Amino acid sequence: MALAFIMVPLVARTTEEMLRLVPGSYREASIALGATKARTILRVVLPSVTGSVVTGVMLAIARIAGETAPLLFTALGSRLNESDLRRPFPSLTVQIYNYATGPYAEEKRQAWAGILVLVAWCLC
Phi and psi (nearest 5°) for 87? Predict the structure, then answer.
């Protein structure tokens, strides 16, 4: 949840910058043809920046994925679900690390499944 808060300003800033890069002549031409301001934004401006916004979202996801490395050192790796924030709290990244470095084949398979969950979550 904390990493999502890191992602929001990155996506917002990228989107804002991409919207500023759309030429004013696109907006003027759409309005000159009789479109409303809302229709201009929905039909002209947003389609022209969709690729850039998707790129910004992917870069934000890559950045927060890189921010998970400190969790390995700060989460303390409890396996119990705690509601007290002063006690060790479970973390998927810590669990994946523990399972991946463990000696059992079943734990290694579960680590790969956890990695698949993280990758699928990041791409969706």
Answer: -105, 160
Helix 2-21 crosses helix 46-66 at what angle (to 10 degrees)? 150
Q: What's the burial of 91, exposed, middle or buried (CB within 10 Å: 0-12/13-18/19+)?
A: middle
Q: Is the separation of the CB atoms in 61 and 76 below 8 Å?
A: no
Return d(Cα 110, Cα 5) in angstroms, integer.
28
50 half-sphere exposure, CB direction, 13 A CA radius: 7
Q: Which two tokens stand for residue 93?
A: 């990244």
Q: Which residue reads 């916004």 in tokens?
A: 53
Query: Per-residue pLDDT for 76 more than 70?
Result: no
Q: Could you read off the pLDDT of 14-53 as tens digits, one per residue? A: 889 998 999 999 999 999 999 999 999 999 999 999 998 8
Q: How far apart are alpha carbons 121 and 115 in whole angstroms?
A: 10
